[in-house]
Input
Amino acid sequence: MRIAVQARQPEPSTLPLIAGLLQAMPAHGLTPVVDGQLAALLAAAGSAMPHDTFDAGAPPAGTDLLMSLGGDGTFLRAVGLVARSGIPVLGVNLGRLGFLAALGPDEVHGALGSLAQRRFILEERMLLQVTGCEAELGDQDLALNDVSVHKRDTSSMIAVHVHAGERFLNTYWADGLIIATPTGSTAYSLSCGGPILDPSCRNLVITPISPHNLNIRPMVLPDACVLQVEVEARELNYLVNLDNRSITLSGQRPIGVRKADLVARIVHLPDHDFFSTLRQKLNWGLDARSAAGPAA
Output
């Protein structure tokens, strides 16, 4: 199995772990192909090893799997690089929370045998596609977590007019608006009060960011809805964000957000469970009283 390995600005303390991982792969029959920037960092740290490399961008043809080393931001970038090629992505969490890159650094060496024997789960996740911004986005018009619009260069709110198909939904007076997938329901949308959806759900979540009207709440819609968003801003510019990428737009224009025809392919080990991840990452069921408090 040919595995592309990518890390975006890894902490120096993680380089020995990454070097050890690359060194262990051939013993399991795995062939690493390393991102050129990562290979340069390893060489500078004294961990240069003979292996194929690829330039920043999509892995080369013949890649069976892309291993993303870092946090969820690194994982999202990796998915964006390979979404159109169908290469599956495995996330190894070298960051903090890690909902998407859920495999811990202490688990990754044990996972190599499972990968070599193809004992893993391949899960398909919904992607969002943005239309109306072709000049600014090119082919980088897909998002795994969410698409959001946000004010810029001012403290004033923006008005976001939203249609679902031919039907007018609402005008949101707010700092912005998030349109999230089930995968993205545990990301920006959650921090703004949105609900958590199981990744297998077929829905979109619309979550306002600091709305002016307190009776405005997040809304769940079927993923067949084609949304049209138009921003009315007091200032000239506003932001459109696709996961961790942003573009600046000016003037009113219709922006389409819909379920993409493509899917992201995510690799999980057989014992992966979404509910277990929720409990672990969000500290569900943790009794704060069990922790020793400050001395009286």
Q: What stands out?
A: The chain has a mean pLDDT of 91.
